[in-house]
Amino acid sequence: MRGQKEYAEQLKLGEFPDKSLLILDDDDPLRGRLARAMEKKGFQVKEAKTVSEGLQFVKNNPPSFALIDLRLEDGNGLDVVKELNKSKKDSRIVMLTGYGNLPTAVAAVKAGAIDYMAKPVDADDVEAALLAAPESKAKPPENPMSADRVKWEHIHRVFELCNRNVSETARRLKMHRRTLQRILSKRSPR
Q1: N or C: which terminus of the chain carries fewer CB neighbours within 10 A?
Q2: Are residues 112 and 178 in the same domain?
Q3: Is residue 118 part of a domain?
Q4: What is the distance of C-alpha 53 from the center of its chain?
Q5: What letters, b where the CB count within 10 A reaches 16 and e where it falls short, cover 131-153?
Q6: Cβ–Cβ contacts within 10 Å for residue 55, how many?
């Protein structure tokens, strides 16, 4: 993953007259958290949960920036990327996915995305990717998220998606309920 200071050159949000950002993701907790964080950074955020909502938003008011999840409940985020690329060629699109692999990264870039990020993501990383100068190349991260932190984030994401039900979360993660309770009671690793 990329961090804010890891691009060789980065543009400033103030350089863009239109600061509209579409966040299209069916993961409600993640989308809400990112929307709040990106608003604090100066973006004018619109949220969508489905491909159809995203396409409708793109047709009515194409944003300058977009953060689009690859797999959504009603289809593929690449459809929204293609439509946005047709509507507004200079839009800056970053693909998001929990299922990162090379073929989908290539497909995203061919469809018009400028970057591709695996979940979980941090608002600083998203901002850095959206504002990266087109000719700049990302450097390897100096402080990547630890494997323990990625595991912790995943467990908490599933816990939230199960409406904070410990038994259901433990069943879905195929772990003992008490083990899950111990993990949930601890602070996040660094």
Answers
A1: C
A2: no
A3: yes
A4: 17
A5: bbeeeeeeeeeeeebeeeebebb
A6: 19
